[in-house]
Design brief:
By secondary structure, the protein is α+β, with helices and mostly antiparallel strands. It has seven helices and eight strands; from the N terminus they run H-H-H-E-E-H-H-E-H-E-E-E-E-H-E.
């Protein structure tokens, strides 16, 4: 609500205080256009940068720690698998075709998640479920891999970059992070998954933060 009030205040200061009566002069129109651009930029900073871009929020991490016995976040470096944005939006994991790649209609799984995906698919342990796909207005997605002994929940989010200053920042894997939540009953299965990910993290020098760890060797 405070952000909405701020936006309203900015609009009132930047636009409504202008004299709207009489013949508009070129300098007035130019000034108005400049202020309108300022408003759009301020709105993007006040709303979009907080909802779409920025570090993982405390409440996001808290939700994971309340539900999962191991919570880890990573700063990514590789694109990983490129999926069809259209199909991913429908909850289906399908590799992007050449046309989708050329038009950037893709979804990056990123390196760590792609490595985990390949391992789980090779071992046919379960299935991936898309709970919340990314969209035209949000870089975040939420997926879960469910199998007999539990599940792995993964959130992708853009944690660096600014779409308005860097139009193609959304295509740079270095701007993204992943938040992993593990809820697995079998200690052996959990350790196996962690060891698989650790191998990738160490090899690719991935920054890893452990937010919660219930007695697992890590």
């Amino acid at each position: 609500m405070s952000k909405l009030f701020t936006i309203v205040l900015l609009i009132s200061q930047l636009i409504l205080t202008n004299n709207i009566y009489g013949q508009f002069k070129k300098r007035e129109i130019k000034k108005f256009t400049s202020k309108l651009f300022t408003i759009v930029l301020l709105i993007s900073q006040l709303i979009l940068t907080n909802n779409i871009y920025g570090q993982f929020k405390k409440r996001e991490i808290k939700k994971f720690t309340q539900k999962y016995n191991l919570v880890i976040s990573t700063s990514e470096k590789e694109v990983g698998h490129l999926l069809s944005f259209k199909n991913f939006s429908k909850g289906v994991f399908v590799p992007a075709n050449e046309k989708e790649k050329s038009t950037l209609m893709t979804t990056m799984l990123l390196g760590s998640l792609s490595h985990l995906y390949d391992f789980l698919e090779d071992n046919k342990k379960g299935e991936f479920i898309v709970h919340f796909p990314n969209s035209y207005t949000s870089s975040k997605f939420l997926v879960e891999y469910k199998f007999d002994s539990g599940s792995v929940f993964v959130m992708r989010k853009m944690i660096y970059g600014n779409l308005f200053l860097e139009p193609f920042s959304a295509e740079d894997p270095n701007n993204y992070g992943l938040l992993f939540g593990f809820a697995i009953n079998s200690e052996n299965d959990l350790q196996l998954l962690i060891n698989t990910l650790k191998e990738y993290w160490i090899t690719n020098n991935i920054k890893v933060i452990t937010h919660k760890n219930d007695h697992l060797e890590f």
